[in-house]
Structure formats: structure tokens, C-alpha cells
From TrEMBL:
It comes from the Eukaryota. GO terms for molecular function: acyltransferase activity, transferring groups other than amino-acyl groups; serine-type carboxypeptidase activity. SUPFAM superfamilies: alpha/beta-Hydrolases. This is Serine carboxypeptidase-like 18. The keyword Signal applies. Belongs to the peptidase S10 family. GO terms for biological process: proteolysis; secondary metabolic process. The keyword Transmembrane does not apply.
Length: 447
């Protein structure tokens, strides 16, 4: 059986000609009634292919037959085959744990400049948390306006890492539009965030107790930081003793893989090309040219699949089947690290989590328990700060008779969960457990 897949653009800034690119996968269950999920990935300006290929499924096994690029337009989410790159187009496999088994998913390259999203005028790349979020609300209005058959389906907003700051803001804007009678009226039910940032100090200050708890820093260093760094900005401490302690702390942190402390330390596969100017982004006729070959990690590294993605996304065969506009993006980059303007003008997302859940919308907040980028301790702390009553106390949740993590359910339909063995982000390391968690939650079942 094949499932409808669309890859298209939606204009979100007419003045500058900015368009967001998306991949739509119809549910493998009952697409007429199953939920529709908008999924965003983190940053800076990372392509949503990271979520599609690496975070919402499982690495394929050798028994699965490889697929052609054409398969992206005819079936559910896929994964790259992990095999030595030989110069040919990287092969694809099906996701055995795809979330499309229970929901239709809109994967969107956002903000403008991420993945295959582009702007005809360089001014269109100058966005921030608020403006990019409002563009996504406009995207959804245009998309559902063109696909009214999905308007009655339950709708959820989801995202990971930095997108976790954007998701509750979008959910609040949609809820406000619903109250104001703005059409089309989305059937918003809630949101889900994976290893989410908030913009608050707790995001990075929680690294200290986490690293102490897992044995990466000593008792003495932990005690020094807790005593001498009170009230200090951990990114720019003024206290000399605090600064020295945090330098030592970062040295020890750099001894492990930050996304998952048990995995090999590998090359960070977020290529940073040296652009002469932003003019390179504007409607050049070269297409499918990989000008900046990424460094090649060991095939034993999780990041090897990231390496393969550059060759897959920059191949003309792939781009033809995806329908990429010629001259729009001359070179696909997995993530843009500060090479395009971006304003972080949502200082804290916690207020939006509070507002949306207080209005009765459902929320699932989950974290991989081996992540040092955004440790679960910090996430657990701000979730508790909402001061909602506990309705299902801290307990294990299970997959195949074994604990898959731990969870607590609060009033106002808020659930927090950890994923055992998960990193940043959790589905990349524990696809089966995350798939089971999502299936239960989206079906209104206890984890």
C-alpha cells in the first residue's frame, strides 16, 4: 500500500518572495480521521530532513529492500541506508517505527533559509522567533485552506530542541485565532515537544547537576560551582573562581558526546560554508551542486547518516522528484550555524506552555535521559514550575514488559516523560520506545 506524499512550497512573505518547503506524509492508518501533526526541527536553521531521516524512525536492517528517490513521493517516511559512500546516490529504506502509522505529518523547513526554504530577496532571511512563528501560522492557514479535507482532523504542533521554544508560541497563536473566529479554523488539540529549549537559564544551568549525577564532574567541582556561581551567568561569569570552575566543567563535558553521553565523540555534521555574501542564496541557476563537501566521520558514528544526507539532498535526481525550484537553493545545508540573521526574541517559552495548557490543550513534554545539550533535569524543573497538581504520580512506563522511561501526568492535560537511553533528540537513539510513547499519547491513552 502507498500513502499520499506531497512536497511543495507555501509563500509566507509576499513582499520578499519567501517560501517554506514542506513534506507531507499521509497517515498509514485512517487519514480521514487520524491526527495531523506539524513537525519542526531545531537549529540553527536545520533542515527538517533531520527529523524525517534521523529522528522519527529506526535505522533500517539488512533485510529491507533499498528504495529510489522516487519513493519519497509515494510512501511513508524513510531512512538513509548506512553504508560506505561510494559516489552514487545514497539509498533509502522504510521507517519501521514511523509516527505516520498513527498520524499524518507535515514536515516543514523553517525558518526561511532552512533546508529548501528560500527567499527571492535577501531581506526575507532576516527573521526571528516571533516572525518565523507567525510565518508558520500563515503557512498552516494557507495549507489547510488548500486542503480543507483535513480541517476536522485533530491537529497538533510538534518539534524538537530549539523548535521546542517555537511550538507552544504557535499553539497559543492558533488558539487565539480560534477564539477570534479566524478562518480556516484548525481543530487544535495540543502539542508535543522533544528535548525542548525554553530560553531560560535552567536550560544550561541544569547541566551541572546532571553531569555530577552521571559521574562526569567530581563532588568538589560540583560544590564549587553551586557555591561560587550563584546568580552568575554561566555563559559569561564575572566571579573569577566561578569562571575557573566552569572552564574546568566545560573541559570535562567536552570529553563526552554531548547529544548522548554513551556514544562515540564524532565530527559535528553541521557544515558551515564560508559565504562571501547572502547573494549566493538568491535565485542562482546552479542546482544540485555540493560545493562544500562535509568532513567524513567514521561509519560507526551516528553522524554518518548526516554525512550521507548532503549527497542525497544535493543530487539532481533527488531534487527533481522533490520538485525543488531551480535557482532557489543552490546548495542544501543540513544546518546553518549563525551564517544568516536570526533574532532570538522569545526570551522564555514557559509562559506559552502555561497559557496553552491552562486553556485545556493537551501537551506531551519528553526528554532523552542521556542528553547533556538540554538535560531532562532542567525540563523537569520548568514543568514543575507550572504548579499543576499531579494526577498520575511518577512511575515507569513500559515497552515489551521493560521500563522504557519514567513519566508523570499533571492537571491541565500535561504529561512529562523521560525516554530511557534517549539522547538529543530522543527518537534518533530510541525510535521504538518513542514510537510507542507517541502512539499511546496521541490516542489519549496513558503511557
Amino acid at each position: 500500500m502507498f500513502y499520499l506524499t506531497m512536497t511543495r512550497y507555501v509563500t509566507v512573505d509576499e513582499e520578499n518572495g519567501a517560501e517554506l518547503f514542506y513534506y507531507f506524509f499521509e497517515s498509514e492508518g485512517d487519514p480521514g480521521s487520524d491526527p495531523v501533526l506539524l513537525w519542526l526541527t531545531g537549529g540553527d536553521r536545520c533542515s527538517v530532513l533531520s527529523a524525517l531521516f534521523f529522528e522519527i524512525g529506526q535505522q533500517p536492517n539488512s533485510k529491507q529492500a533499498p528504495l529510489s528517490p522516487k519513493s519519497v513521493r509515494s510512501c511513508g517516511p524513510l531512512k538513509l541506508v548506512i553504508e560506505p559512500y561510494n559516489g552514487s546516490l545514497p539509498r533509502l529504506h522504510y521507517h519501521p517505527y514511523s509516527w505516520t502509522k498513527v498520524a499524518s505529518i507535515l514536515f516543514v523547513d523553517s525558518p526561511v533559509g532552512a533546508g529548501f526554504s528560500f527567499s527571492r530577496d535577501p531581506k526575507g532571511y532576516d527573521v526571528g522567533d516571533v516572525s518565523a512563528s507567525l510565518q508558520l501560522v500563515k503557512f498552516l492557514s494557507n495549507w489547510f485552506g488548500g486542503h480543507p479535507e483535513y480541517l476536522t482532523n485533530p491537529f497538533y504542533v510538534g518539534g524538537d530542541s530549539y523548535a521546542g521554544k517555537i511550538v507552544p508560541f504557535i499553539a497559543q497563536k492558533i488558539s487565539e485565532d480560534i477564539e477570534a473566529g479566524v478562518r480556516p479554523t484548525l481543530n487544535l488539540k495540543g502539542y508535543v515537544v522533544d528535548n525542548p529549549t525554553t530560553g531560560e537559564r535552567i536550560d544550561y544551568e541544569s547541566k551541572v547537576p546532571y553531569l555530577h549525577g552521571v559521574g562526569i564532574i567530581s563532588d568538589q567541582l560540583y560544590e564549587t560551582i553551586m557555591e561560587r556561581c550563584k546568580g552568575e551567568d554561566h555563559n559569561n561569569p564575572k566571579n573569577v573562581i566561578c569562571k575557573q570552575a566552569l572552564t574546568r566543567f566545560n573541559d570535562l563535558l567536552n570529553e563526552v558526546s554531548k547529544p548522548h553521553i554513551l556514544y562515540k565523540k564524532c565530527i559535528y555534521m553541521s557544515l558551515i560554508p564560508k559565504f562571501e555574501s547572502m547573494d549566493r542564496k538568491i535565485l542562482k541557476e546552479e542546482l544540485g551542486i555540493l560545493k562544500h563537501r562535509p568532513p567524513r566521520p567514521s561509519i560507526q558514528c551516528v553522524s554518518y547518516s548526516n554525512y550521507l544526507s548532503y549527497f542525497w539532498a544535493n543530487d539532481n535526481v533527488t531534487r527533481e522528484y522533490l520538485g525543488i525550484k531551480k535557482g532557489s537553493v543552490d546548495e542544501w545545508i543540513r544546518c546553518h550555524d549563525n551564517d544568516l540573521p536570526y533574532t532570538k526574541d522569545i526570551k522564555s517559552s514557559i509562559q506559552y506552555h502555561h497559557n496553552v495548557t491552562l486553556n485545556g490543550y493537551r501537551a506531551l513534554v519528553y526528554s532523552g535521559d542521556h542528553d547533556t545539550v538540554l538535560p531532562f533535569l532542567g525540563t523537569q524543573t520548568w514543568v514543575r514550575s507550572l504548579n499543576y497538581p499531579i494526577v498520575d504520580d511518577w512511575r515507569a512506563w513500559h515497552v515489551d514488559g521493560q521500563s522504557a522511561g519514567f513519566t508523570v501526568a499533571y492537571g491541565n492535560n500535561l504529561t512529562f516523560a523521560t525516554v530511557k537511553g534517549g539522547g538529543h533528540t530522543a527518537p534518533e537513539y530510541q525510535p521504538g520506545r518513542c514510537s510507542a510513547m507517541f502512539r499511546r499519547w496521541i490516542s489519549n491513552m496513558p503511557l
